[in-house]
Design goal:
The complex is a heterotrimer of chains A (309), B (253) and C (291). With 309 residues, chain A is an all-alpha fold. Helices cover 76% and strands 3% of the residues of chain A. In chain A, the strands form two sheets. Chain A has a two-stranded antiparallel sheet. In chain A, strand 2 and strand 3 form a beta hairpin. Chain C has 291 residues and is mainly alpha-helical. Chain C contains eleven helices and two strands, in the order H-H-H-H-E-E-H-H-H-H-H-H-H. Chain C is globular, with a radius of gyration of 19 Å.
Chain lengths: 309, 253, 291
């Protein structure tokens, strides 16, 4: 119970030392993208890994946040922080309206419904050209916090690193709490959780809304960070990327989320030298890791080490 | 006083009546058994009472309050708990965590306080863990305090389900074939455990095929056949009833 | 007014027939293995792209078509052998990811091999439209609708009138019992993947003269086929056909009367309506869990 989280200390140490090791802005940028993905994937893993409910449309919520931060300040003069809050509230509201009927479904039907949600959001973003700039996207104004504009990869790292650390800490707290236990229990046996008092539908909705909220916030931050947003952030392939990070890193594993995000963010960079072959290699990595490591990297390694003791 | 009253309970699946016009009353603090041949509708009856199925007709009262049609989690809050014929253990969790889930309703489940690691919530959870540990000892699972549920043998999992149900602090506990698949020694232990639970003031409703055990521990017995109530009475009354023998062995006997 | 409606219906039924074939592909594999094959759309893409390639290599049309059906069928068998079979017993999410990985590999290879540009070949029987009730019906549409009808009929006969077909059906209902009855369930899986790929490829070949093809058409076609299969009720053959036609018609009517920009959203909104009111689709089997 009171065991200190050794993983958290290690992660904190890595995040502290990293800025000293990264040679230039290019590497800071990659690390920032890893952190962004890791935080979204942490939320998604609560839904997929811990509660056992799949979502193939999570990029849709990321897109809602990104475009809220692009559209509201640009067209209506909102301060960025208010826009970010509005986007997250909107994503959470949409999730809570759509979740109750969605979660009556299970398995492939749930996959289909969430996939449909994502596709519809991405089509709206592509087509409402007057607001979104259409397929070409639109610029996003910079983010200022407490009157200070965040500028450059290094400053953004200063924002993303603590947010990542906080997210890992909060996720660990959550899964170690009665709430998280109920989530894992309904994954293990829905009927058994019901008869001891777990309102299964409420928990599924709650964790779906939470993960949508996180995705939207990160969508907003990413939009400000990149300074430009296109409908691709909300499309099916981005949703698949996020699910893949969950699965490759390890379902129901907090550090698996981080490791999955780090590896799959680094992969395209590593593949850039194989010009043209990115898609093929990415697909092959997905297949191979699922075939040979269905539990995901971190849980598999943890089991290996446990056996070695 | 009657803890549970079931009146005219009926469940139709399509045109088939799985449970038909069944009424009975369970007094507080007793062990009440439901028996009958395979397919008599015993598990369906349990599912109707505990809210997993909605009855087509009929009424269920718990301590004089109508609870028909409530969801299982609402019934749990009113003091109902149960185990399952086919094990429903969360294999993705440890044994203790399974029992702790049973105490779900007694602790703070707020999302934000959970994420932010509120001390009050953490203290309550420590208390719950201690209680779960005690309950595991109570059902005889001391040896599995550190175990993953997936690493436990079948007989231990049967008892883990009982510990989880007890963690919900039920007023009435439904046990669906707790001795199924157990050897005679394990069955005798479950027998003693049920007696202990009933003596502790929890009303027990039992579905079981092991007649020796049923006759041994039941205060009253309900006999179902083809979804209908055949008879009800004490162990000796039921044992001597020619209809019951016919139902089990076929009319020709 | 009526002629306009008829025009939309023609294009709806034409594209719907292709979705029906894609949905049948999903259904074949789902019934045999409980896997939703997200690479189904790539078979459709392969059908079109390979026909273009074989025609350009100088083969006559019939030979090109036969090869463009046979190659995807072999790819389907390889997919089963190399990716699905080794992952036996994996959960739904993992299997979905595996087939998504396979679709990325196929798409990537075709992109490298044939480039990103669109590809097309001429319609089978020219472009002189037939006028019915003031609406124009392209001869290729008749090819699409007719061939799809023949395939549906052939599959129906196969499953209901042949021992091989019944063996596959038996395996989908209860694999263990089928195995005990002497059915080679391994063979059933391979046949299902091959058939599914071939049916998808045929859809892709038929559609290419109308809509053109490129390395990335598989995503949307596959997803819409999946929608059709779910709308019809996963696992139901007649449901897949009905679902495909429904999705095609609704898409065409949306494009005609509401907004062509939102035609791609229509199938996905339809899925919500259907799943909320009929959680198992139009013809899906009811399942109850025993506890």
């Amino acid at each position: 119970m009171r065991r200190p989280h050794p993983g958290l200390l290690v992660l904190g140490a890595i995040l502290l030392v990293l800025p000293l090791l990264l040679p230039n802005a290019f590497y800071f940028d990659i690390v920032n993208r890893m952190a962004i993905n890791a935080i979204v994937v942490l939320g998604l893993n609560l839904l997929i890994g811990f509660a056992g409910q799949i979502s193939l449309g999570h990029a849709g919520f990321f897109g809602i946040g990104a475009y809220a931060s692009a559209i509201l300040p640009t067209h209506y003069g909102w301060p960025p922080v208010a826009a970010m809050g509005a986007g997250a509230a909107g994503a959470a509201l949409l999730a809570s309206v759509i979740a109750p009927p969605i979660f009556r479904l299970s398995g492939h039907y749930l996959a289909m419904a969430t996939l449909g949600l994502g596709v519809v959001i991405s089509i709206v973003l592509k087509n409402e050209t007057a607001f979104t700039g259409g397929p070409d996207g639109m610029p996003v104004p910079p983010l200022s916090l407490f009157g200070l504009e965040i500028f450059g990869e290094r400053q953004w790292y200063g924002l993303f690193a603590p947010v990542l650390l906080f997210s890992v800490w909060a996720c660990q707290n959550l899964i170690d709490s009665p709430f998280g236990r109920a989530l894992r229990a309904l994954h293990g046996s829905e009927v058994a959780s019901q008869v001891v008092g777990v309102d299964v539908a409420r928990y599924k909705v709650a964790v779906f809304v939470l993960s949508a909220f996180i995705a939207s916030i990160m969508g907003s931050l990413t939009a400000h960070y990149v300074g430009f947003v296109t409908p691709n952030v909300a499309d099916f392939l981005h949703s698949i990327e996020l699910v893949t990070m969950v699965v490759v890193g390890g379902m129901a594993s907090v550090y698996g989320s981080v490791v999955g995000a780090v590896l799959l963010t680094a992969l395209p960079q590593a593949l850039a030298t194989f010009e043209g072959w990115e898609t093929v290699v990415f697909g092959a990595v997905l297949m191979l890791s699922m075939i040979f490591m269905p539990k995901g990297l971190v849980p598999t390694l943890a089991a290996r080490l446990g056996k070695g003791r | 006083m009657a803890r549970l009253e079931v009146r005219n309970l009926t469940k139709a699946f399509g045109g088939v009546l799985a449970v038909e016009d069944v009424s009975f009353t369970v007094e507080t603090g007793i062990v009440y058994s439901v028996i009958g041949p395979n397919g008599a509708g015993k598990t369906t009856l349990f599912n109707l009472i505990t809210g997993l199925l909605a009855p087509s007709v009929g009424e269920v009262r718990l301590d004089d309050q109508v609870v028909t049609g409530l969801a299982p989690h609402q019934l749990a809050a009113k003091g109902m708990a149960r185990t399952f014929q086919n094990l429903q253990i969360c294999m993705n969790m440890t044994a203790v965590e399974n029992v702790m889930v049973g105490g779900h309703l007694s602790v703070d489940r707020n999302l934000f306080r959970s994420m932010l690691h509120f001390p009050s919530l953490r203290r309550a959870d420590v208390v719950l863990r201690d209680r779960a540990t005690e309950l595991m000892a109570y059902v005889g699972l001391d040896a599995y305090l550190q175990s993953e549920a997936s690493a436990m043998p079948y007989g231990a999992l049967k008892r883990l389900e009982i510990a989880r149900a007890l963690a919900a602090k039920p007023r009435i506990l439904f046990l669906d074939e707790p001795a199924a698949g157990l050897n005679p020694r394990e069955t005798a232990e479950i027998d003693r455990l049920i007696r202990k639970i009933a003596d502790g003031g929890v009303t027990v409703v039992l579905v079981e095929h092991d007649m020796k055990m049923v006759m041994n521990i039941s205060d009253r017995i309900l006999v179902l056949n083809s979804g209908k109530k055949l008879t009800e009475g004490s162990a000796s009354e039921v044992r001597g009833n020619p209809d019951v023998i016919a139902a089990y062995l076929g009319k020709a006997a | 007014m009526l002629s306009q409606f008829l025009q939309f219906m023609f294009s709806g039924v034409t594209i719907g027939a292709t979705y029906a074939l894609a949905a049948l592909g999903f259904t074949l594999i789902y019934n045999a293995s409980n896997v939703i094959n997200f690479a189904q759309g790539e078979f459709i893409m392969l059908g079109g792209m390979l026909t273009v390639f074989f025609l350009k290599s100088g083969l006559p049309m019939p030979a090109a078509i036969v090869l463009a059906i046979a190659v995807p069928a072999v790819v389907g068998i390889l997919l089963e052998k190399l990716a699905i079979e080794p992952a036996k017993g994996a959960d739904t999410v993992s299997l979905i990811i595996i087939t998504i990985g396979a679709s990325l590999v196929l798409r990537g290879i075709v992109q490298i091999w044939r480039g990103k540009g669109p590809a097309v070949f001429p319609a089978f029987s020219g472009n002189e439209p037939i006028i019915i009730g003031g609406a124009a019906l392209a001869p290729q549409s008749l090819w699409v609708i007719g061939t799809s009808g023949v395939i549906v009929l052939a599959l129906w006969l196969f499953f209901n009138r042949t021992v091989a077909g019944k063996a596959i059906l038996a395996t989908s209902v209860d694999p263990l019992a089928a195995q005990l009855a002497g059915i080679n369930t391994q063979w059933v899986l391979l046949v299902s993947f091959a058939l599914s790929a071939a049916v998808g490829a045929i859809g892709g070949i038929l559609l290419t003269p109308i809509t053109m093809t490129s390395y990335d058409v598989g995503i949307m076609l596959g997803l819409k086929g999946f929608v059709a299969a779910v709308v019809g009720g996963l696992g139901a053959g007649h449901g897949a056909v009905a679902g495909g036609l429904l999705v095609g018609i609704i898409e065409a009517l949306t494009a005609g009367y509401i907004s062509s920009a939102y035609k791609d959203a229509a199938p996905f909104l339809l899925i919500f309506v259907v799943l909320f009111f009929m959680p198992r689709g139009m013809f899906g089997a009811k399942k109850t869990e025993r506890v």
